[in-house]
Amino acid sequence: MAKDYYQTLGVPRGAEEKDIKSAYRKLARKFHPDVNPNDKTAEAKFKEVSEAYEVIGDSDKRKLYDQYGSNWEHAQNMGGDFQTGGHSAGGADFGDFHFGGGGMGAESIFDHLFGGRVSGTRANNNFNFQDVDSMQPRDVEKSVEISLEDIDKGTKRILTYQTMDAQRLRDGISTVPSTKKVEVTIPAGISDGKKLRVPGKGAAGHNGKAGDLYVVIKWATHPQFKPVGENLEVEVPVPYTTAALGGEIRVPTLRGAVTMKIPEGTQSGQTFRLGGQGIMKLQGSRGDLMAKIRITVPKKPSEQEKQLLRQLVELEQVTA
Same domain for 216 and 251? Predict the structure, then answer.
């Protein structure tokens, strides 16, 4: 059964971007592994929520998802120019891809894939390509979103994608895209937007040699941490009493919470730098973590707290 990303995030299909982001952050906090240690159910739910936000939280991917549903990724690989579903008049249905019947024609889809170097005729859904030998290996580019935790420690991803190889055309498999699966190592500290090159994993040319796969790394939005240059920023709630008197607070990092002392009279919005507690850099060192203070007050103070606060107000009025 196809996944409904809107249902996963609990938002209507016409939801605004801010509502989608708000729903994601709420669910991400609820099911985050740090909040639910050793809870496999919560971990699985966190992955589902992250996957849903990766798609409908991105305006371009959302448009494709709204139009093509579970086939949105195929549409992205093909530039959005294909149809899904059954046969239509004059069309040919090839698995997840549908050519003809108002969509891209057979020639135009191959022109799109091979840069306009394919020509030929179509008869009974069979294609005779006259200049297939001119097709050269082609590079393929694919984006992958990685969590900050995985950027910090490094990870691996198995990517599945489709190409149209000239070698397959010569072998008579002209209408079936080639599905490729490759494991990619994501090094710790790789920058947002950086491209990884995987040699020989692109689309094959007429001689069987393939182009390269380029994997574009995108840092996933995090419910707690915000990248600021080479550093991270995190908001830390601090009780007003601790802010006034000073003391120790717990600050979350990508690798667990650490203890930090704050001075008396700490103000809301004040930022403290924790050296080396940020995200890993590609050269092996770590950036800093900027702890931004957010002072909190009790929503329902007890009678004793109220009395003490009244005494504090009276004292301030006397000393003013």
Answer: no
